[in-house]
Amino acid sequence: MKKNKIINDPVYGFVTIPQGIIQDLIEHPYFQRLRNIKQMGLANLVYPGALHTRFHHALGAMHLMKMAVDTLRSKDVVITAEEEEAVLIAILLHDIGHGPYSHALEHSIVSDISHEHISALLMNRLNDDFDNRLSLAMQIFNNQYPKAFLHQLVSGQLDTDRMDYLSRDSFFTGVSEGIIGFDRIIKMMNVFDGQLVIEEKGIYSVEKFLIARRLMYWQVYFHKTAYAAEHLLVNILRRAKYVVSKGEEQLFATPAFSHFLHNTISRADFESSSQHLGYFTLLDDFDIFTSVKVWKDSKDFVLSYLCESLLRRKLYKSEIGNEPVDHLRKRSFEKKAMEMFPVGPEDIPYFVFDDVIVNEAYRVDDGNINILKKNSVILDIASASDNSTLQAFAQKVSKYILCYASELKGVVN
Amino acid sequence: MKKNKIINDPVYGFVTIPQGIIQDLIEHPYFQRLRNIKQMGLANLVYPGALHTRFHHALGAMHLMKMAVDTLRSKDVVITAEEEEAVLIAILLHDIGHGPYSHALEHSIVSDISHEHISALLMNRLNDDFDNRLSLAMQIFNNQYPKAFLHQLVSGQLDTDRMDYLSRDSFFTGVSEGIIGFDRIIKMMNVFDGQLVIEEKGIYSVEKFLIARRLMYWQVYFHKTAYAAEHLLVNILRRAKYVVSKGEEQLFATPAFSHFLHNTISRADFESSSQHLGYFTLLDDFDIFTSVKVWKDSKDFVLSYLCESLLRRKLYKSEIGNEPVDHLRKRSFEKKAMEMFPVGPEDIPYFVFDDVIVNEAYRVDDGNINILKKNSVILDIASASDNSTLQAFAQKVSKYILCYASELKGVVN
Amino acid sequence: MKKNKIINDPVYGFVTIPQGIIQDLIEHPYFQRLRNIKQMGLANLVYPGALHTRFHHALGAMHLMKMAVDTLRSKDVVITAEEEEAVLIAILLHDIGHGPYSHALEHSIVSDISHEHISALLMNRLNDDFDNRLSLAMQIFNNQYPKAFLHQLVSGQLDTDRMDYLSRDSFFTGVSEGIIGFDRIIKMMNVFDGQLVIEEKGIYSVEKFLIARRLMYWQVYFHKTAYAAEHLLVNILRRAKYVVSKGEEQLFATPAFSHFLHNTISRADFESSSQHLGYFTLLDDFDIFTSVKVWKDSKDFVLSYLCESLLRRKLYKSEIGNEPVDHLRKRSFEKKAMEMFPVGPEDIPYFVFDDVIVNEAYRVDDGNINILKKNSVILDIASASDNSTLQAFAQKVSKYILCYASELKGVVN
Amino acid sequence: MKKNKIINDPVYGFVTIPQGIIQDLIEHPYFQRLRNIKQMGLANLVYPGALHTRFHHALGAMHLMKMAVDTLRSKDVVITAEEEEAVLIAILLHDIGHGPYSHALEHSIVSDISHEHISALLMNRLNDDFDNRLSLAMQIFNNQYPKAFLHQLVSGQLDTDRMDYLSRDSFFTGVSEGIIGFDRIIKMMNVFDGQLVIEEKGIYSVEKFLIARRLMYWQVYFHKTAYAAEHLLVNILRRAKYVVSKGEEQLFATPAFSHFLHNTISRADFESSSQHLGYFTLLDDFDIFTSVKVWKDSKDFVLSYLCESLLRRKLYKSEIGNEPVDHLRKRSFEKKAMEMFPVGPEDIPYFVFDDVIVNEAYRVDDGNINILKKNSVILDIASASDNSTLQAFAQKVSKYILCYASELKGVVN
After folding, report:
1. At residue C359, does pLDDT exceed 80?
2. Which residue among A351, B301, C190, D254 is least enclosed by CB atoms within 10 Å?
3. DSSP at D46
4. CATH 1.10.3210.10 domain position(s) in chain A
């Protein structure tokens, strides 16, 4: 019989993998694929340590889930052995549908289908493979199980997914701003009226969690250079599809990647034919980046230029601010780009473009974080907090970014 | 010739003590006394690791100051060797006037003189002992030196004092909420128009610093149990002075402590006679707590009761909230106390009392934190930040606390 | 009903205190006394962070014990709820008999009775107070319980006591050399034939533990300056007793300390009269150090000199080496001391003395560390290791130390 | 003008990149290539965090070198600005010649040329590109510069390379056994007679470094599963070259990788034609692993089998021990393999093979670690240490490993 396995995790020390179906799921090729998908996409171009993968994140989130289950049980919340296994599976598989470079390429390789939807499709397949033993996990994942707190632990504003990725991303980037007190937050969890709540004295830790998340967004996830790198990759993909569509050049690609380069595959296609999902489960960061390496010698100037830029880390320069982009300024960059690069006006967006980035640290009415006061009253964290800080968090923050080819730096004042 | 010394500091790894006057100052009995004054008073009754001292804090703050000096110089800010030594001395001695149990007893042992004022008196004495070699340090300390940024590094809203105590208190309490990115903040320091500024990309680290400070205040420094312990000690001192004043009982005390028990020594006294300061420099946590141990057998019921409570950790129970204390409720506790304890109404405040605690995370117009934007504009952090979070910080938060003897717990609904 | 309590511990994050008798024991004055006994005596004069107490150590060791119990149970080792509580109590109380400044004064305040023996006496008393509910814990503590592995977890060459003090002492001193992989060691624990064993793949972690312990001994516990400080305190005590015995001077002391200054109390005395134990349970670091502060003004030159030396940190200078002390050299120091200090030859040992320090990292045949090989063979670690490193550890190492008053530094070549 | 850059490093906090040639070298494609070469090859299959790269390692080693330079200067060792830049460059480029998967494939992609030799060739090229401004760095690297200690900091038994990789590999694997006190070791460095020495009181830190290294070797670098993974990759390469040589199948590969699959390129070839080096500088982990992904569908059974094994993590099973492999036992495995797999006897070594692993923690007479005693005597660490531990380290340890296809597990007793 297999035994529990122990895996070293620099974030938590050790993660225990319980024997049985969970070990089998981890050994499945769908899950092993996550070893080759970096959690933070191309952020390692700014934070060189950020090479950790969806694989490690999923194990870590499962570890926190186990801690949460143990804590709740110690407070006399009933969680059966079946429910424990199911909620562990649910968190383990929550990202199974992520494609190469995580969020960066989410809408480039396939169209109109989110990674969450692909996750659902893959869980269905796995459920077939495992004789329907994932049914309860899927109910929890889809919030169809009566014990709502189990779903909230998987997906909510204070779930084990977020707690792990903040801890892990802080750890591997070295950005201490993102460190959260996950152990204290978990120790303060409880269940009240079937809902996940945080006991009152944990309120500062939750505040800390929310501000850590906000800071990580602006300092790391939306770091203007990381943003520039990701958009470069998106543009590479877009251009490659265009080159392929013109049929003038064969582009180097693995068979699986080639399938997605030559075909525009929609959600409907995924659902009607299993072939697409099959190819998708073969794709990871390796397919993409290896092609980029070869494409830098493409005959297509735009594709070659973009790949060379990524490989040599000559990323787009970018300007980020709280005001909408000045379109006259953008126009000036475009004009200079026309002069500098041998391309027509239809290709200028590969060299100059702008975007809006929106974030809110805490979203009221979307799976609120509930605080259990000593007098058994439940309050939303934004109301329970003793000052207006958190109300402030609930506001949307928009930032505006203008990107242009690095050669254009300085040509416009 | 003496060499640089290296001291292990679990917070920073190693702290280097430069040779010369700084080593001599550290060896001076005034500074060695800080070894016996805990940084966080009685907070160790709640956080058992919080036994670190003013001595270690002063060395740590000096270490951060050295980092700041090195960073500024690397950005071509001129700091002469004399100024470096002086600013290191200034931060080293900034807390030299603290009495036993740091803040807890600040207004109990002596009256109407702050620890800052005693620090100034002691620096004067040291300056005499050291042939006026502390004059420049004192100018910086007192903000009388033209290079204002040097004073701001010693005492401001983002000074090395605060950076050290937040880091150190977090470390020794184990409260990760207080961890700040001191290294990043320091690396982002610069000087503009003679003022200390933070470069724009350090803004999130400063935000983090401010929220960490706020959380440490509410979760640790104003923790209701730590608060209760400190007030117990304050009441013990008050009662002991009363017992001594009645002359009915000799109280066990070291000669130095006895001097302050038998005399009410004011700022004017300190300034007119050096004897008081002499006794003061002999006082530390040992004098106080050892007396408490013996006084638990005092014939005075109140004194004995209070000392026993502290020693057995039967601290005041306390209720803390955002609303002013309900005086009817307080009255009920007082009535019960009258029934329960063999004391007259004039002694009831030893058993039941209330208080207001006020804190603001960031004080606008009191040594602002200035952000240097890329376009060489200086903004206050509260304006530079991209949302209303920091404006919120600038608001005063008041909390109201009601404390009562632990035996009274539950007797009033 | 009381609930589990959570205590912040910077070493482990959080320590959970289970409800029931364990909380009651912790609240007992005997245990609270440990809050005022520093784990490492006067080592803070060298490592300023080393102010942690026996109280924190005992809680930490209990935390590791809980981890060990959980691990063994997950490997199907039967440990009943009663046994769990008992083994937690046994480790919690293992140091209850320590006197002020831990080891430093072990043989100065009382004579011919060890802290282990006092621990046993105090456990007896507690057992009476708690209606014999400590009986099983005492059986385990005294190795009289059939499941030998429980005792081995409390007291053996790889027990939770040692794992905690190495981890904790490293943490608070900042000496990273002492860091051990306690979590990995515990995860590798198992029970075979009723004995505690380590599974084979944990062998490197055990080696690391042994070398960390050896290094901590030589670098920290036997640090020559810390050693000098401790011996200074021992000599102060010895001199104070002498001064008291001559009857010429009243020495400032708390009543409890006074009892031990005026009486030589032996093991037989402790066992025949409970009064001595009563006084002993009132003694802690405060009593001792406060007296030292006052005694620096003693009329007795030797006592005054020694106290002043400790307070001003003018510790003995010391020379440590692998060769026995050169007695001619020692004689020269003694001659100079006679010239320099106004004392007779009988008092010279207060100014010049030597000693031998012996340590062995691993003691074969004294509660061996057993390795469970994959083929179910048990080997002692010294045999199981793949090279001669550990055999080397099993050798006794002796070092020789010569100490002399700091004023004598340099007077002898 | 460019400014100093700061890079987040989770191991050290921040790494400063000085302006000038060092930034230019880092931006060079040769150095950027190291971003895609994992420091620990396939060890992430055992330690999922171990994804860090040669790029990060080189920056970290440079950071330690800067610390060492600062320390030595503070002890009045003369290091000019030119020498500082040169020694930083030397350590920055010390691994520039590493190929994909670091050590794993060192002798598979090319033959009879080490990564050190390729590093030397690449430094030569860079020296040409940078107008001979690397000449001093190369002298130091090649130990041709009079100040021997500079070379010893780059390459010796206690160099900044080793200090970084032990620290970094421990950090990213989460194996705390490898943590070393790099800051203490560096603070104890000095120069005596032109040689790098460690001051006597750093001796325990050096011992700790040596044992940490030994433990990392056996627990991590030679971990039997990591070993199995690496040999699987080596066998894949070997088989791919064989398949290509037979000419029956086109194997998917990038142009650069294809060059090395179709040609056997020796040291002489590298030196005679720059084309080979050009292709080499395009190769990284991506080229290799992407091919493995496609080759799992090869028509060649052996190649397909091996690739599938690596991708699905069905690694060789292995038995490791202190005794030479039992050849009868190996024979039995081979016989079973013949029955189980459709291959001829010449291909059996792809399924069953054995090997010897040799390590010595410290190599006497190969760049010794010298300890500077207080009396200005220099001793080798193996002599200076106070017991036989280190002599033990100097012994070679051999281990014997037998590997077989995972399907063979259990078929031989």
Report:
1. no
2. B301
3. T
4. 5-93+134-222+370-395
Give domain B224-358+401-408's CATH number out of 1.20.1250.30, 3.20.20.140, 3.40.50.2000, 3.30.70.260. Answer: 1.20.1250.30
pLDDT tens digits, one per residue of B8-66 = 999 998 999 998 999 999 999 999 999 999 999 999 999 999 999 999 999 999 999 99
pLDDT for residue A393? 66
**Residue extent(s) of CATH 1.20.1250.30 domains in chain A:** 224-357+401-408
Distance (Å) of CA C187 to CA C167, C170, C200, D112: 16, 21, 12, 44
Q: What is the CATH number of domain A224-357+401-408?
A: 1.20.1250.30
What is the CATH architecture assignment of D5-93+134-221+368-395? Orthogonal Bundle (1.10)
Average pLDDT, chain C: 91
At residue B96, the pLDDT reads: 96
Q: Is the pTM of this model over 0.95?
A: no
Q: How far apart are CA B78 and CA B143, in angstroms?
A: 18
Q: Cβ-count burial of C34 within 10 angstroms (0-12 exposed, 13-18 middle, 19+ buried)?
A: buried
Q: What is the pLDDT of residues C202-237, one digit of tens each?
A: 888 888 888 888 888 888 998 999 999 999 999 999
Instruction: Flag whether residue C6 sits within 8 Å of chain A, measured between CB atoms.
Output: yes
Angle between the B203-216 and B160-173 helix axes, to the nearest 10 degrees? 60
**Residue of B8, B250, B281 to mutate, interface with C, max C Cβ within 10 Å:** B8
pLDDT of residue B385: 67
Residues of chain B with CATH 1.20.1250.30: 224-358+401-408
Asked if pLDDT for residue B244 goes beyond 60, the answer is yes
- Residue C361's pLDDT is 64
- Rounded CA-CA distance D190/D75 in Å is 7
Q: Is residue A397 within 8 angstroms of chain B, CB to CB?
A: yes
Residues of B in contact with C175 (CB under 8 A): 8
Residue of C57, C54, C56, C32 whose CA lies nearest to C41? C54
Mean pLDDT of D85-100: 96
Decide if domain A5-93+134-222+370-395 falls under CATH 3.40.190.10: no
- Nearest residue of C to residue A13 by CA position? C183
Give the strand pairing for C370-372 and C195-199.
parallel
Written as six digits, the tokens of B38 are: 């805990």
C 289-318 near B (Cβ less than 8 A): 289-290, 293-294, 311-313
Contacts of D2 in chain B (CB under 8 A): none
Tell me the chain C residues in contact with residue B52 when contact means C-beta distances shorter than 8 Å.
49, 51
In this structure, of A378-387, C117-126, C292-301, the range with the lowest mean pLDDT score is A378-387
Residues of A in contact with C6 (CB under 8 A): 187
CATH hierarchy code of domain B5-93+134-222: 1.10.3210.10
CA distance B14 to chain D (A): 8
- Measured distance CA(A165)–CA(D11) in Å, rounded: 19
Range(s) within chain D of domains with CATH label 1.10.3210.10: 5-93+134-221+368-395
Res A322: pLDDT: 85
CA B269 to chain centre: 24
Identify from A166, A215, A371 which residue to disrupt to test chain B contact, counting B C-beta atoms within 10 A and taking the largest count: A215
The structure tokens listed for B365 are 């117009």
**Window from B203-207, C283-287, D196-200 with minimum mean pLDDT:** B203-207
Distance from CA of A255 to the nearest CA of D (A): 8
Number of CB atoms found within 10 A of residue C133's CB: 18
Q: Tens digits of per-residue pLDDT, D216-275? A: 888 899 899 999 999 999 999 999 999 999 998 999 999 999 999 999 998 999 988 889
